[in-house]
Amino acid sequence: MVLKNSGPKGYPGMALIGVDWGTSSLRVARIDERGEAIEERSSARGILTVKPGEFPAVLNEACGDWMAQDRSLVLVSGMAGSRQGWVEAPYIPCPAGFGDIASQLAWVEPGRAGIVPGLSSHHDGVPDVLRGEETQVFGALALLQLGDATAVLPGTHSKWVRVEAGRIDSFVTFMTGEVYALLRHHSILGRTMEAPGSEVLDDEAFCAGITQAMKAGSLLKAAFSARTLSLFDLLPARSGASYLSGLVIGEELRSQQFALPSAEVVVIAGPELARRYELALRFAGMQPRCVGSQATWRGLSAIAQQLRDTA
Amino acid sequence: MVLKNSGPKGYPGMALIGVDWGTSSLRVARIDERGEAIEERSSARGILTVKPGEFPAVLNEACGDWMAQDRSLVLVSGMAGSRQGWVEAPYIPCPAGFGDIASQLAWVEPGRAGIVPGLSSHHDGVPDVLRGEETQVFGALALLQLGDATAVLPGTHSKWVRVEAGRIDSFVTFMTGEVYALLRHHSILGRTMEAPGSEVLDDEAFCAGITQAMKAGSLLKAAFSARTLSLFDLLPARSGASYLSGLVIGEELRSQQFALPSAEVVVIAGPELARRYELALRFAGMQPRCVGSQATWRGLSAIAQQLRDTA
Predict the structure, then answer these.
(1) Of residues A264, A71, A225, the one with CA closest to residue B123
(2) SS (H, E, C) A72-112
């Protein structure tokens, strides 16, 4: 066990170490009482690189010094709680509130190191799942002091999350980032685009892609326009990737039914994706607010607080 | 020039050699006066394998003996007429009739070897193109003696073609086959499916995929269900690829606006894809008729007949 030097049990006064352990990366942070990161580290040791049984050692490498120093509580969110991860933290069905996830942590060491469970949502008998986003959503709500919101979490698998009265009511997954990468790098469409490299977004081509996605009614149909516009010299090679990005994000916007008309739209993403989604959502008439990676730390901090309050 | 031994010019009585020259394959046939293939050959010498200037030599390899034997007319359809092909045969804008393509062949050797032009169609200022399918569509119409039809040509890039009063009115391209292959072989979805191999279609899983595609309203959203159903043990690994095929073909069906209510739906495809599309179209309440690869030869034969009639 990695936490051998971390002192006696009990939440009050314990320092918090936040761990955001995803498929392809590992981020750790020392988190203060206001939920802000005092110090952050990240590595490429996502769960896909970790063999069963080696999770404690990898975490120790990442922040064993912090754990040895302080009498710490370690809270982990993300894919570390999946079947292929450290310890499986079973999905909690929606609707699920903040208290539900705080009370159903999967403890690696009881009271000292716990993994936040993901959520499941069903539509017409088909399940959907998320892991890690629940923590980001509750963190963003706390940061913005919102109880109702439509949270948009762009990425390889984008999530649209509907929050009502502080509870996650339901959500849906779009394979936006993964499909974009496949079309950009492995399909015929990439052939008429500039080679991948430092891709600066061409806002005009991006918005033209969004418009086309909305009109076409299916990405399967709209996608081919990236090729034909180029064949007819209507789309320069340098703008091709921006247009395709607009097509794919536009398709996500076209087909989501999650935006609550009366609720705030909150985008939770790093700067590059936040810029694209903010542009897209404004183009579609919405007024999004953006929150960055601090949402995870704020969410884990709120869970720690809940543990202290109910201890 | 490859046709040096093929005798004097003039269409009447000339034997017809049909060439279906696509991106990844080359098919040639000796075609009789009824438009049927007497003898067929195929090779992997699609245009992507042929260097500029080497098209005559590659064709000579494929059927030089036929060309030397007979006083032949050689008609070529497919990507050989593209900018990357033998000689560019510019796209003819829709609506376009059979006579339009017959009178605008790109002659490699005038009166002896010609390439059939492709068609272009515009929707909301966005161009779409096809090459080779025009010949298949006119061939299928001749075979079935139809003047109005919705022709469906499944493949890497599926085409839905609307034919009214014997003319191709417009068409639309879906990247169905390419997106299926990307999701099957390069995305996370493949991980919960049986390794690719001899894939026997699971009709039930295929139709479940179609149903889900219709409900979801976007493949970007529906696709993730192939993963979550598997995570929840609701989709066995051996049925995953069939379900995904249903999702993708179902998306094509959901979003096409080309089926003329009063017109016949004609599927032009080889046996494996024809079976899937027939199943999908029947599931969606249509009564398709199917035509196979002979459509190309019948189409080229009809063009040859038109040349004879107008000579």
Answers:
(1) A225
(2) EEEEEECHHHCCCCCCCCCCEECCEEHHHHHHCCEEEECCC
Name all domains of chain A by residue range, CATH numbers in brackets: 174-291 (3.30.420.310)
Partners of A212 on chain B (C-beta within 8 Å) are 124, 126
The ipTM, to two decimals, is 0.90
Q: Name the interface residues of A facing B (CB cutoff 8 Å).
A: 124, 126-129, 157, 172-176, 178-179, 182-183, 186-188, 212, 215-221, 223-225, 228-229, 231-232, 234, 248, 251-252, 254-256
Q: Tell me what the mean pLDDT of segment B138-163 comes to.
A: 96
**Nearest alpha-carbon partner for B92 in B141, B138, B39:** B138
A173: distance to nearest CA of chain B, Å?
A: 6
Alpha carbon distances (Å) from B232 to A87, B225, B308 = 18, 10, 64
DSSP per position, B177-223: HHHHHHHHHHSGGGGGSPPSSS----HHHHHHHHHHHHHHS-HHHHT
Task: Report pLDDT digits (tens) over B165-198.
Answer: 999 999 999 999 999 999 999 999 999 999 888 6
User: What does the block give as tokens for B40?
Assistant: 């067929």
Q: In 10 A of CB B161, how many CB atoms?
A: 26
Of residues B126, B188, B254, nearest to A229 (C-beta): B126
Which tokens hold the place of A61? 């490498």
Of A126, A173, A223, the CB nearest to B229: A126
For residue A124, pLDDT over 90 is answered with no
- The residues, ordered by sequence, that sit 6+ positions from B298 with a Cβ below 8 Å of its Cβ are B35, B36, B139, B140, B142, B143
